[in-house]
Amino acid sequence: WTGEYELGAIPGVAATEAGWREGREVTLVVFDQKATNLAKVTQAASKVRCAQKVYTVGGGSAGNLPAGHLTSAYRSAKRTDQKRQLSKWPQLAKVPGLNATQLTKLNSLGPRDQSEALEWLSPRQRQALQMPAR
C-alpha cells in the first residue's frame, strides 16, 4: 500500500485510508485545508509516482493529473490492509488513544525516521512506549 505510506508523509495530510475503486488500489486522503491544498497534495503525489488520477468530493484542480468525482464506487480496503507499515513497529500496540492523524503519520514516517514519527505522540503516549518526552 504505497499510497498510504507516501501520501501520509505529505505536510498537511491529516489521514489516509487504503481502498479500491474500479478494481485498482487507491488511497483516500484527507488534508487540512488550512495547511495545504488539493493542487499541492496532487503535485506531491505525482512526484512520488503514486497517483494516476484524482477523485474529489467537491471538485477542484488536480494539477496535471486527470480528475473525477469520488462516488460510491470507492470501497475501503479490509482492516488488516490499513496502515501496513505499522506492522514493522509492534510496540505501538501499547500506545493508548492513537487518532487517525497519528496513525497516518506513524505509518508514513516511522519507517523513514522514527524520531520524526514520535513527534506526533503526546508525552503520555511516548511514555507508553517507554520513550522520553521531548
Summarize the structure.
This protein has five helices and five strands, in the order H-E-E-H-E-E-E-H-H-H. It has helices spanning 2-7, 38-47, 100-109, 114-118, 123-128; strands at 13-21, 24-31, 54-56, 67-69, 75-76.
Describe this entry's structure for a reader.
With about 130 residues, the protein is α+β, with helices and mostly antiparallel strands. Helices cover about 30% and strands about 20% of the residues. The strands form 2 sheets. It has a 3-stranded antiparallel beta sheet with strand order 2-1-5. Strands 3-4 form a two-stranded parallel sheet. A hairpin with a 2-residue loop joins strand 1 and strand 2. The termini are far apart. The mean pLDDT is about 85.
* Overall mean pLDDT: 85
Helix run count: 5
- Characterize the main sheet: 3 strands, antiparallel
Determine Rg (CA atoms, Å). 15 Å
Q: Which descriptors apply to this entry?
A:
single chain, 134 residues, alpha+beta, three-stranded antiparallel β-sheet, two-stranded parallel sheet, 5 helices, globular
What's the arrangement of secondary structure elements?
Blueprint lengths: L1 H6 L5 E9 L2 E8 L6 H10 L6 E3 L10 E3 L5 E2 L23 H10 L4 H5 L4 H6 L6
Parallel strand pairs: 3-4
Antiparallel strand pairs: 1-2, 1-5
